[in-house]
From TrEMBL:
GO MF annotations, alphabetized: methyltransferase activity
Domain called Methyltransferase: residue spans: 21-106
Alphabetized SUPFAM superfamilies for the sequence: S-adenosyl-L-methionine-dependent methyltransferases
Single GO BP term: methylation
Protein name, per record: Methyltransferase domain-containing protein
Any one Pfam family match given in the protein's UniProt record, by short name: Methyltransf_25
Keyword field: Methyltransferase, Transferase
Taxonomy of the source species: Bacteria, Pseudomonadati, Pseudomonadota, Betaproteobacteria, Burkholderiales
């Protein structure tokens, strides 16, 4: 895993309004630290205690939870987070409850592996790969407005097939979704 902030997360993180941010499957905390540096209180969740130890820092609360463990319930209430960041992680049974935890004006920033990634290595199990248009369909099904979407090959930090999405809840102001040009 790279400690470099995902360019996708870096580009869309400024859209997240004031409030708490969930970094789901945070790994060593690269995005937790970035969101905390932007002034957010961050809840960093991962099942790996060693990764969480590396995540600790000002403005970051860590929580060791294996959300894929049998019988584990989604630990967060509705409309709790101004932003949710997910990278390199997919566990479909959690998605509906995760999206319910997004505030009415909240921002979802999601980037993970997609079908076709096997040509680049792991993950290659279809259970961990998004199908074509899957993130777009999830956004539509949960009433999110898509700000940006990409589906294709990236070359850094390593070659991979990914889908990435930035989507907002209905109360997010349209004018706030405009970013400076590249």
């Amino acid at each position: 895993m790279s400690d470099q902030i995902s360019p996708w997360v870096q580009r869309y993180a400024p859209l997240v309004p004031g409030g708490a941010v969930l970094d789901l499957a945070c790994g060593s905390g690269r995005h937790s630290r970035h969101m905390a540096a932007l002034g957010h209180e961050v809840v960093a969740v991962d099942r790996d205690p060693a990764a969480l130890a590396a995540t600790c820092g000002p403005g970051i609360t860590t929580s060791a939870i294996d959300l894929e463990e049998e019988g584990v319930a989604w630990p967060f209430g509705p409309q709790r987070f101004a932003g949710i960041v997910v990278t390199n992680y997919l566990h479909r049974p959690l998605i509906a409850e995760m999206l319910d935890s997004l505030a009415p004006n909240g921002v979802l920033i999601y980037e993970t592996f997609a079908d076709g990634n096997a040509q680049f290595g792991k993950p290659s199990n279809p259970a961990f790969l998004l199908q074509p248009g899957e993130l777009l369909e999830l956004a539509r099904a949960h009433g999110l407005r898509v700000v940006a979407f990409e589906d294709g090959v990236i070359t850094a930090p390593k070659a991979a097939m990914v889908q990435r999405l930035c989507a907002v809840k209905p109360d997010f102001p349209r004018e706030a979704a405009l970013l400076p040009p590249f």
